[in-house]
Every structure is written in structure tokens, then in C-alpha cells.
């Protein structure tokens, strides 16, 4: 007969081996699941990378077309500007040499229009912004000035004509005669 301690020790040893094998089997299953998950993420990243490379290729092709178009437009603009410069130079030289040409060019444009065409360009006034609201002029004194300026510039001619006749705008938008 076998000693019960030896039998218990052998049973305990077998149970420890089975527990160790089950633990390692669980780790192996977990590792396979993690590998499958990581492989899926890798495939997704590779698909995204391939799509991004295709997009970069399309953008480079578009950029090349834009560069080519810009170069063509610049060359055409340079030709046009050179033609304008040559024409202006020829006209100036001809006007300096020939009195009839000078008289024709001086009389071609009426004086009033010539003053308008030859005056220097005015700069647009800078937009005034409020301290409280950096994106707008609302709530500041300058907003009222801008509103009055806008009204003066964009009022209808009929308003000025009504004022000349002594009529003003009533509250309902109708004209009424000023008494007095």
C-alpha cells in the first residue's frame, strides 16, 4: 500500500502542473487576442497611410498644374505689360515729336474727366474697432459716426430733394409738409 502522504504529494504535484498549464493556456489565448487586435489596428493604419499617400499624390499633381498655370499667366501678363509699356513709350515719343499728335492727345479726354483720371488714388479709412468688442465697432462713439457717415453716403436722392422742397420724412415713412 501506498503511503497517504506520498499519494497526496503526487496529487498536489499533478494539480499544480494542471493549474500552471491552464494559466499558461489563458496567457496564450490572451496573447492571440491581443495579436489579432493589433493586427487589425495595423491593417487600419496601413489603409489610412495608403489613402493619405494617394491624397498627397493628387495634391502634388494639382500643385504642379497650379504652378504651371501660374507660370503661364505670369508670362502672359509680362507680355501684356511689355506691350502696354511699348505702346505708351511710342505714343509719348510720337507726341514729343509731332505737334498734331500732341494736340490730338490733349483734346481726346475732356478736362474734367482728365482731372479725375490723373488724381492720386485715395486710401480707404481704417476701420475703427471698439475696445470692448475687438471684432466690431458696436457700442463705441465711432459706431455712431460710422452710422451717420453711412447714412450720408447712402441716402436716397429723394430725401435730399424732399428737404429742398421743405418736406421731411414722417414717422411712418411718408412725406409731410413742414409748416412755417
Automatic annotation (TrEMBL):
Residues 119-180 are annotated as: Disordered. Keywords: Membrane, Transmembrane, Transmembrane helix. The keyword Transmembrane helix applies. The chain crosses the membrane at residues 6-23. Residues 119-132, 147-156 have a biased composition (Basic residues). This is Uncharacterized protein. It comes from Mesorhizobium huakuii. The lineage of its organism: Bacteria, Pseudomonadati, Pseudomonadota, Alphaproteobacteria, Hyphomicrobiales.
